[in-house]
Design a protein that fits this description.
By secondary structure, this protein is mainly β. The chain is 8% helix and 47% strand. It has one helix and eleven strands, in the order βββββββββαββ.
Amino acid sequence: EVQIVESGGGLVQAGGSLRLSCATSGFAFDAYAIGWFRQAPGEAREGVSCMMSTSGSTYYAESVKGRFTISSDNAKKMVYLQMDILKPEDTAVYYCAAGAQGLHSITHAQAMGVMTEYEYDYWGQGTQVTVSS
């Protein structure tokens, strides 16, 4: 059974930091792309960052580049999203997702400048991040 569980969300002041964690099980972690998406109230879900743990290839949305860092612990099958210099516009529910297309999803995002939701097969329930001004 595939499980993806996010944690680490919360309330933080603008300029602060949070680290989100994504615990995974039930699929071939090394072969999957792992991505973070977010959805603010009334808005479409958007891709924030993704990575391929085996190659270290990463992608960041322009809105978070230089402020967010994605990383993984392959032995634990965990993915993290370190979020620094948080802004009120970062407020959203953050989702972790895994995609079987693997590296293709990363290179596709790098080429297109956007992550594609349908390339991700498994999703967590999300964790709320609220940034106050």
